[in-house]
């Protein structure tokens, strides 16, 4: 009879190198405890790598630096797909995405309607915070980022240059998405976002 170990390995090897797997992906082969033990054995024999607790992969190998671990963003995206959840970057992550900060955050914080959790990756971590439906109701990816970036900067700290950059980004958002998302933002952020709306033709 084929062991749980070989069934797990077969499934992982069929996927593209670097694909991420979770303990729950193998529960058709045995119960949680048996699957966890099998994964542990495969890690110990270097057949697979543990990326973080409960997350595994057969990693890409670089001839010079060796195993290539997925980025924190790739892990966040993998979890978003797996949980069919919405994710909105917050804080420094949102500032980074809009080019307002070059700081590399140690903790990447996302708002989500999936499970709240923290995933440790060496010294860094990815934090998924359960958010209210209103915070996740934005339909524009740029306007969603802009709202979070402005909240992070704060009403009284925003500079003219930051305002310019944010409005420039918002002008790339589809107007109907922008109009929808303005209604979800705090009043001081609405005023800024409205500046990016296309001017109506004056009659």
Automatic annotation (TrEMBL):
InterPro entries: DUF6088. This is Type IV toxin-antitoxin system AbiEi family antitoxin domain-containing protein. It comes from Cloacibacterium normanense. The lineage of its organism: Bacteria, Pseudomonadati, Bacteroidota, Flavobacteriia, Flavobacteriales.
């Amino acid at each position: 009879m084929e062991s749980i170990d070989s069934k797990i390995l077969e499934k992982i090897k069929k996927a593209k190198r670097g694909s991420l797997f979770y303990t729950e992906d193998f529960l058709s082969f045995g119960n949680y405890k048996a699957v966890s033990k099998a994964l542990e054995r495969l890690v110990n024999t270097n057949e697979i790598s543990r990326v973080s607790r409960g997350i595994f992969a057969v990693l890409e190998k670089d001839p010079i630096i060796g195993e290539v671990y997925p980025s924190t963003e790739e892990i966040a995206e993998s979890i978003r797909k797996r949980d069919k959840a919405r994710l909105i970057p917050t804080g420094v992550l949102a500032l980074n995405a809009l080019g307002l900060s070059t700081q590399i955050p140690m903790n990447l914080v996302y708002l989500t309607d999936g499970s709240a959790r923290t995933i440790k990756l060496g010294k860094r971590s990815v934090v998924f915070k359960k958010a209210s439906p209103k915070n996740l109701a934005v339909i524009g990816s740029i306007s969603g980022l802009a709202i979070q970036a402005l909240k992070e900067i704060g009403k009284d700290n925003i500079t003219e240059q930051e305002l310019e950059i944010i409005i420039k980004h918002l002008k790339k958002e589809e107007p109907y998405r922008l109009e929808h998302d303005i209604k979800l933002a705090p009043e001081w952020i609405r005023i800024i976002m409205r500046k990016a709306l296309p001017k109506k033709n004056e009659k």
